[in-house]
Write a structure and sequence with these properties.
Order of helices and strands of chain B: HEHEHHEEHEHEHHHHHHHHHHHH
Structural class of chain A: mainly alpha
Helix content of chain A: 55-70%
Largest sheet of chain B: 4 strands, antiparallel
Number of helices of chain B: 18
Largest interface: A-B, 68 and 68 residues
Oligomer: heterodimer
Number of strands of chain B: 6
Largest sheet of chain A: none
Shape of chain A: globular
Order of helices and strands of chain A: HHHHHHHHHHHHHHHHHH
Strand order of the largest sheet of chain B: 2-5-1-6
Radius of gyration of chain B: 48 Å
Distance between the termini of chain A: 6 Å
């Protein structure tokens, strides 16, 4: 323990080529990490703010439940979907949420394979966010199928009365497989990574119910070195499996559009463009969530400004990719020489939905440019504002792609303007209720920081700075 | 926590058994050093317990590399076959010319999409990929836990209160009693010399490992009882019953609407029935004067083969239907010319305005004629069709009654004055004598095409012959020759 304070402990965003900047600040040792990470969970009562947020989230969840009930009782006509825009907000919301659900697995899998140690503090919360976002995403096509009680017809299950099977040539069916595989693998990955930390909770809890539940969930984990050996290999394999998976999911989501022949949809740039957009929106959501969460849960020494800054850099990079894709779309429309493509793209920017297009461009391309300035990407309250704009922009991106192309198809006589209903709006707002309810419960009852992983990247031997 | 300490103090009692010695270390480096010492001392059955994976501990403990990757690889390769096979089977792929859509009990289903093959690799790659990833992830996840022999409901290590910090910040090394070198005093001394901060005995409690005697039979009975509801449900699902099925989800099976051929709702009482509509029917008739789409038959020359003025006159005579339809019961002796009530002048003698006689129409007429007419009248119109020949043979033996099909080259049939084109059209539409009506099978344009083709056949100069003498080859050449005289027939 030195009497002079290491400047990097105060501001770990400083880059010194001779030495790695610390990823855990505040001079925490192993026990300190555990205490800090389990702070909110340790407390007898969660902070008042948590209750307030939960109340808001639960009331929005109730709104969602009421809307879904109304939808099931009355049919999909309660939405604004109508000729020619048969894919309205439900598909927009689906793609929006699935996109958000990409950051978690990206952080846990791809950054793991690239040995980016800074991922350890944020991966747990990001993975949780992924799963909750996929839950929200799955809801929309789930209720869009009309007769939800026969949802199992989506899967290749032999049924006597249907006497047919799914059509494996359809991108919509690929989507069923991609999203359900993604949800399952993300859940396995998340849970497996969490087992050692749940064991920590099992060993810390003082309540009998907690001992029982965490005891079962931790599967009898003891931290045996043999177990760790197989565990680490399994974790690497899962990361290696999840990496192509995470890229495939939004690729296949983009096939829903790209395999059709509608102008503005039928382009080969869609898969990479969608994947970049997914990572972009996912990281924006992680930052939006973690900035307040690190404050409320008291984990500022674990999720440091450096972590946030790194994520903001990724947001800026993917934002530029998305911006490039917007430009390339115009180039391809012009270069193809197809008048329908040219019309579709010029209609996007200057047609009836010009306002949506320019909201999208300013939120996704212009606003993230602020992150070139260091103050902007290292000031928590400011980056949250930018990231909220990014999320708004990414919702509008899906809106623009879906609605503008459908409302102006080949046949001018069927052109129409899309009008959402109050059910559309309430379900979008309500899905945030579902998302935040799950996230708040996660913050309170499960380890929000991958403690074991954070400890493994701490300076070895002398854990006491 | 207090009962654990009691257990510790009562370690020497009979119902406990020593499992091993647990040594605590405060940092990973001293743990690795101790592991190296233990391995060099010859211990084999030992394990280290750490809050996070400590790198370098595997060689120190002599842990062999995991074989998990090979399990995952074999599952992934199997998933390629399963993923592709599933799509091939369910979408009606075929093997050796035999498609799965005839397989029992779950046949494949062929989707006809733009003439594409039922199975082709590119369209099946995404799903195959997802199946591979999903199966491999399951293999990884469950394989890892099985290799680690987890989940484990009870572990004597958890009885050591100090061990709780293994998931927080402390590091442990356990020497197991099963090891050949293990001896309680000696091993303890060794651990002490390797720098252990604390050493604890790990004991297994033998008392609470036994289940109560009643548990097994009760659990068995309980499991059997739990199986009853699903068995009952599946039994009912597969059973035959005269009663309607239980509809858990009604779908659209019952709707608030009336179907055709039912009574209209009763607005009176049960005894004094009063149906809503005056004709008692729920089904409504079209408004008078309305014409269903595609049913406008205002051109009498086109649709009936009757001249316009004659048609109007007959409409005024009110019972137009009887006048217009020359029915098969009209004359008994089979002689058209002798039909008493028929006004031959009502029929048009050429073709209606909307129908153009040209090569395409004649080709179409020939094709339709060969489908509908040739079976009786023969390809050349000689009345020697296969059905006619067979029926005549049967009639000759007294096995059937049959009126021979007319030869279209019969002078009476050929006579344009007695048999104008409108009448031929009417014959096709409504039938004549024993010939049945073809109006329902053959569209109007096709009927006129057949009429044109018949007129062309008649112009070829084929002599009417007895049944069976004409050949098909003859008819074909005749038909070709007939088209040359096309203009002459337009009249």
């Amino acid at each position: 323990m030195a009497t002079t304070v290491d400047p990097k402990q105060l501001d770990n965003t400083l880059d010194d080529p001779a030495e790695r900047s610390p990823l855990v600040t505040g001079g925490l040792d192993y026990e300190g990490v555990t205490d800090a990470a389990a702070g909110v969970w340790d407390a007898d009562r969660p902070p008042l703010l948590w209750w307030g947020l939960l109340a808001v989230a639960l009331s929005l969840l109730g709104l969602l439940g009421a809307c879904v009930n109304h939808l099931l009782m009355s049919g999909t006509g309660v939405w604004g979907n109508n000729n020619p825009v048969y894919w309205g907000w439900p598909i927009v919301n689906f793609v929006f949420w699935v996109g958000i659900g990409h950051a978690g697995t990206l952080i846990s899998a791809i950054l793991f394979l690239f040995r980016q140690n800074w991922r350890t503090s944020i991966n747990r919360a990001a993975e949780a966010m992924t799963i909750f976002a996929v839950v929200c995403a799955g809801l929309f096509p789930g209720v869009h199928i009309g007769r939800v009680w026969v949802f199992y017809w989506l899967f290749p299950i032999p049924t006597e009365h249907l006497a047919m099977w799914p059509n494996f040539r359809s991108p919509l069916l690929w989507d069923v497989f991609a999203v359900s595989t993604y949800a399952t693998v993300s859940l396995l990955f998340w849970y497996m990574g969490m087992v050692p930390d749940i064991a920590t909770f099992r060993d810390r809890t003082r309540s009998k119910i907690g001992k029982f539940i965490y005891g079962i969930l931790s599967l009898g984990w003891t931290g045996s070195s043999r177990a760790w050996h197989h565990y680490e290999i399994a974790y690497t394999i899962l990361a290696a499996l999840a990496t192509p998976l995470v890229l495939s999911v939004h690729t296949i989501v983009s096939f829903d559009f790209a395999v059709s022949q509608l102008p503005g949809w039928h382009t080969t740039i869609f898969p990479p463009y969608f994947v970049a957009g997914a990572i972009f929106s996912g990281f924006a959501m992680v930052v939006t969530l973690l900035v307040p969460a690190r404050k409320i849960c008291g984990v500022e020494n674990l999720i440091t400004i450096r972590h946030l800054e790194n994520m903001n850099k990724i947001i800026m990079a993917t934002g530029l990719m998305v911006g490039t894709a917007y430009g390339i779309e115009f180039f391809m429309a012009w270069y193809s020489g197809v008048e329908f493509e040219k019309f579709a793209l010029s209609n996007r920017a200057f047609g009836n939905y010009w306002w949506a297009y320019w909201i999208m461009v300013s939120c996704n391309v212009l606003i993230p440019q602020l992150f070139w300035i260091k103050w902007c990407r290292t000031t928590p309250w400011f980056m949250v504002i930018v990231c909220i704009f990014v999320n708004i922009g990414m919702w509008f991106e899906r809106f623009v792609i879906t609605i503008t192309s459908l409302s102006r198809d080949f046949l001018p006589s069927s052109w129409a303007y899309f009008h959402p209903t109050w059910v559309d709006l309430s379900m979008l707002v309500g899905s945030f209720g579902l998302f935040f309810t799950l996230f708040l419960l996660f913050c309170r009852f499960l380890p929000i920081i991958a403690m074991a992983e954070v400890k493994s990247i701490m300076p070895h031997g002398d854990g006491h700075h | 926590m207090s009962n654990e300490t009691e257990n510790q103090t009562a370690a020497s009692t009979e119902d406990q058994e020593l499992v091993g010695l647990l040594a605590q270390f405060d940092d990973p480096d001293s743990l690795i050093a101790a592991c190296n010492n233990a391995r060099e001392a010859g211990y084999k059955k030992m394990d280290a317990y750490t809050p996070f994976p400590v790198h370098g501990i595997d060689p120190a403990l002599g842990i062999k590399r995991s074989f998990l990757p090979f399990i995952v690889l074999s599952v992934a390769l199997g998933a390629v076959v399963i993923g592709l096979g599933m799509q091939w089977y369910t979408n009606g792929g075929s093997i050796g010319g035999k498609s799965t859509d005839s397989f029992w009990p779950f046949p494949g289903y062929k989707f006809q999409i733009s003439g594409k093959p039922y199975f082709s690799l590119p369209a099946n790659i995404p799903v195959t990929f997802e199946v591979i990833v999903l199966s491999s992830a399951f293999a990884t996840f469950f394989g890892m836990w099985i290799i680690n022999r987890l989940p484990r409901l009870s572990n004597p290590l958890h009885r050591v209160s100090r061990f709780k910090r293994v998931t927080n910040d402390k590091f442990f090394l356990m020497l197991e009693k099963k090891d050949e070198l293990f001896s309680e005093t000696e091993s303890r001394a060794q651990l002490d010399s390797w720098g252990a901060v604390a050493i604890e005995e790990v004991n297994q409690d033998l008392t609470d490992t036994k289940l109560p005697a009643w548990f097994t039979p009760l659990a068995f009975v309980g499991a059997l009882l739990l199986m009853l509801p699903p068995v009952a449900i599946f039994g009912a699902y597969g059973a035959n019953s005269r009663k309607p099925r239980l509809h858990v989800v009604p779908d659209m099976d019952w709707q608030h609407k009336f179907k055709t051929q039912v009574l209209s709702p009763n607005v009176g009482t049960k005894d004094n029935v009063d149906y809503l509509f005056i004709d008692d029917r729920a089904m409504r008739q079209p408004v008078e004067g309305s014409v269903a789409f595609g049913s406008m038959m205002d051109d009498s020359e086109m649709f009936y083969g009757i001249k316009k003025d004659a048609f109007e006159a007959s409409m005024l005579a009110k019972d137009a239907r009887f006048q217009l339809a020359s029915t098969s019961s009209e004359d008994k002796d089979g002689d058209d010319a002798a039909a008493p009530a028929e006004d031959v002048s009502q029929w048009i003698t050429g073709f209606p305005e909307g129908f153009e006689v040209n090569q395409a129409a004649l080709d179409r007429g020939q094709q339709r004629f060969n489908i509908y007419c040739a079976v009786c009248h023969g390809y050349a119109g000689n009345g020697d069709g296969l059905v006619n020949r067979r029926a005549l043979a049967l009639a000759a033996n007294g096995k059937a009654k049959w009126t021979a099909a007319k030869s279209l080259h019969d002078p009476v049939v050929k006579d344009a004055a007695k048999n104008p084109t409108g009448r031929i059209f009417d014959t096709i539409t409504n039938g004549r004598n024993t010939m049945g009506p073809y109006g329902a099978q053959i569209p109007v344009e096709d009927r006129w095409a057949i009429v044109a083709y018949i007129k062309a056949l008649q112009e070829t100069g084929i002599e009417p012959v007895a049944a069976g003498e004409s050949t098909d080859a003859e008819a074909d050449t005749d038909a070709q020759a007939a088209t040359k005289t096309e203009d002459a027939k337009k009249e």
